[in-house]
Design goal:
Blueprint lengths: L1 E3 L2 E8 L2 E9 L5 E11 L4 H23 L12 H12 L5 H21 L10 H13 L4 H20 L26 H10 L6 H10 L3 H5 L6 E2 L4 E4 L2 E6 L5 E6 L9 E4 L2 H21 L22 H14 L9 H12 L4 H8 L4 H8 L4 H15 L7 H5 L9
Antiparallel strand pairs: 1-2, 2-3, 3-4, 5-6, 6-9, 7-8
Helix pairs in contact: 2-3, 3-5, 7-9, 7-11, 12-13
Length: 417
């Protein structure tokens, strides 16, 4: 089957006549097959048949474009989709976070692998919403969750938006597509007793300080590992989140560590009060680091001097090790499964349970806007619902509702270690 994308065609004989058979999908994504007669007999010259086929294919291409999103004829639109994606990823790299770029690159790689198989050599101008919608549908049917499908959608949409912005394409090929609906995400978290037990489990472990910082401050993994001693102001009692350490694959496919001073949003860069318990642990860590530096002597690794989360030999604690070791300890000690990132959610849930306003939690966690915090944790804001219930009960008459949530979390010293 020859490729003249975004459809395919072959020549076939029917009732002694030559036909061109097109295989394509309509606007709804349904597979269609159309037989177009050439008015040539089964036995005819190859040259004559090829000329007629080319004429029919050219006409079909025009009609297909009108029905399924007209192909763009600008010179740059004639490059293959893969060539365009390579250009786009290079162009946006200086302006977005390394983790975002890495995520885009992974999604684009999987999409181009699909195109290579189903639509080889397809040009940018031949892309249309039917092809993309079909791809996302197949990903969903293969078991990919709605939230992940949305990430695919957003990455591809961003790529083609750039093509429209740079006037490579006249129209966005994903216009009129339906944004996949992601299922509501409900975060997992530990309650106060489980957190306190977690602290006991990690006593003396290389991650002990990291676990405490995560539970008290709800910092992201990359933010904790990015803490340097210059972020701790022992005099003014503050801790500033201003950089991160990430572990991603570079363009050569090699996994590397990167220190980034540019955080995701302005709200991510924040200064918080230095909690006395964490201050004590940090001061103890300082003394321990000085001891190990002297003990290791010339063997002490100084590449990450100034960073807090380091091993006894001076090497930085890597993000992947943090995640895997945390999971191993949790499982080996028979604790309920929890991702390291869920300590962030645990911090938020304990703040909510102790009547800290949602807006204050947004600022504590460093979310870029209130809706992110509300979408994640509104279902946990039970005390506010109790207050509403009691208010309407007083107005209309009746007994007030007892708050079991308050009975569970009566200690306002959240996450004491």
């Amino acid at each position: 089957m020859k490729a003249s994308l975004p459809f395919k065609y072959i020549t076939a004989v029917k009732n002694g006549k030559q036909y061109v058979v097109f295989d394509y999908k309509d606007k709804a994504g349904k597979r269609k097959r159309k037989w177009v007669k050439t008015d040539l007999p089964e036995k005819c010259s190859k040259k004559l048949l090829n000329a007629k086929v080319n004429e029919i294919v050219e006409e079909f291409t025009k009609n297909f474009g009108n029905e399924n999103g007209k192909s763009d004829s600008s010179p740059m639109a004639q490059q293959t989709v893969k060539e365009y994606f390579d250009m786009w990823l290079t162009a946006i790299k200086p302006d977005i976070a390394r983790t975002t770029h890495n995520g885009y690159r992974n999604i684009i790689r999987k999409f181009t692998e699909y195109l290579d198989k189903e639509y080889p050599d397809i040009t940018l101008g031949e892309m249309n919403r039917v092809i993309i919608q079909d791809y996302l549908t197949k990903k969903f049917n293969s078991g990919l969750k709605g939230k992940s499908i949305k990430q695919y959608y957003l990455a591809l949409h961003s790529a083609f938006t750039y093509a429209v912005k740079m006037e490579i394409l006249e129209n966005h090929p994903m216009d009129k597509m339906t944004l996949p609906r992601a299922e509501r995400y409900e975060a997992s978290f530990y309650n106060q007793d489980e957190i306190n037990n977690l602290f006991k489990v990690f006593e003396g472990d290389p991650l002990e300080l990291i676990v405490h910082i995560a539970a008290y401050y709800g910092l992201r993994r990359c933010e904790i590992l990015g803490l340097r001693w210059d972020a701790i102001d022992f005099q003014n009692k503050t801790i500033t989140i201003q950089r991160k350490i990430i572990q991603v694959y570079d363009d050569d496919g090699v996994e590397r560590l990167y220190v980034e001073n540019r955080l995701k949003t302005n709200s991510t860069r924040r200064t918080l009060p230095l909690i006395p318990h964490i201050e004590e642990m940090l001061l103890a860590k300082k003394k321990t680091d000085e001891y190990f530096r002297k003990s290791f002597g010339k063997e002490y690794d100084t590449e990450y001097d100034g960073f807090i989360c380091r091993r006894p030999d001076g090497k930085i604690i890597e993000p992947n090790y943090l995640t895997s070791h945390f999971g191993y300890i949790i499982k080996s000690r028979g604790m309920r499964h929890l991702r390291f990132h869920d300590l962030r959610h645990s911090c938020a849930s304990l703040l909510l349970a102790n009547d800290v306003p949602m807006k204050a939690i947004q600022e504590w966690l460093g979310h870029s806007n209130f809706s992110i915090t509300a979408n994640l944790y509104s279902h946990l804001e039970y005390n506010a619902k109790i207050a509403s219930a009691n208010t309407i009960a007083r107005v209309l008459g009746g007994a007030e509702t007892k708050s079991e949530a308050n009975d569970t979390h009566t200690n306002n010293d959240t996450c004491e270690g």
